[in-house]
Design a protein that fits this description.
Helix content: 25-40%
CATH superfamily of the largest domain: Protein of unknown function (DUF541), domain 1
Radius of gyration: 29 Å
Strand order of the largest sheet: 1-2-8-7
CATH architecture of the largest domain: 2-Layer Sandwich
CATH class of the largest domain: Alpha Beta
Largest sheet: 4 strands, antiparallel
Number of helices: 4
Strand content: over 45%
Distance between the termini: 23 Å
Order of helices and strands: HEEEHEEHEHEE
Shape: elongated
């Protein structure tokens, strides 16, 4: 009778664990055969690169003149980036557009005031500490036709952060499995498998581009980002 009550308790606990996303498998003889858990590990890292979004925009009397003007400024942008050591592979055009621009007044209604050509670039600065200098150089030489849309730090190489996050995930998984084993009054046995459910991802915790006072160098505050890894681990029961 006592053995039946113990088996029933294990089965009831297993049902609860399954509902929480963890599993305890029951064999034909009514003995729990293994515990499977998921756990997420995290690590805070300082971004090592910065992405810059910038726009070139020119308004002219004709679409051809607008496009020529935008192309001229775009070449200046490429020259500046080359001077700053940015590889061509890290410069990408996001959008390129040419079209009429309108104004509206109650007296005259809508009318064309010219044609605007715009090109939006995404630039990856792989040396985060150089990002402020890149912004300053672009603004200095790009003129009124250039706008910096945004700058945001990123983790380009998450290797070290992923190692720390995996270590954290394994510790949490082990602790969770041991807690369930204790609740069931059983012992953990050998490891059956470990699977990485999600690849290392990073989440921005705090970062901003901070433009200082006039004539001062632009500083990009990197903040920190969280690298996260989720694993699934299964143990036999001893």
């Amino acid at each position: 009778m006592r053995k039946s009550l113990f088996s029933a308790a294990i089965i009831a606990s297993a049902l609860v664990l399954v509902s929480c996303g963890e599993t305890v498998n029951i064999g034909e003889n009514g003995v729990a055969q293994g515990i499977t858990v998921q756990a997420s590990g995290t690590a805070d890292v300082v971004p090592d690169a910065v992405r810059i979004s910038l726009s070139v925009s020119v308004l002219a009397e004709t679409s051809e003149l607008a496009l020529n003007g935008a192309s001229t400024t775009a070449e200046v942008v490429r020259d500046v980036l080359a001077d700053q050591g940015i590889d061509e592979a890290d410069i990408a055009t996001q959008t390129l557009s040419v079209g009429p621009e309108y104004s509206y007044t109650e007296a005259e209604g809508q009318k064309i005031i010219g044609y605007r050509a715009s090109q939006v670039f995404d630039v990856l600065v792989r040396e985060a500490d150089n990002a402020g200098d890149v912004v300053d150089a672009l603004v200095a030489r790009g003129g009124a036709n250039l706008s910096i849309n945004s700058t945001y730090p990123i983790v380009d190489d998450a290797t070290d952060g992923a190692v720390a996050a995996r270590e954290d995930a394994v510790k949490k998984a082990r602790a969770k499995a041991e807690a369930y084993a204790k609740l069931l009054d059983v012992e953990l046995g050998d490891l059956v498998y470990l699977t990485e459910v999600s690849a290392p991802t990073n989440i921005m915790v705090g970062a901003k581009a901070d433009a200082m006072v006039e004539n001062a160098a632009t500083v990009i505050d990197l903040g920190t980002q969280e690298v996260s890894v989720t694993i699934e681990v299964r143990w036999k029961l001893g």
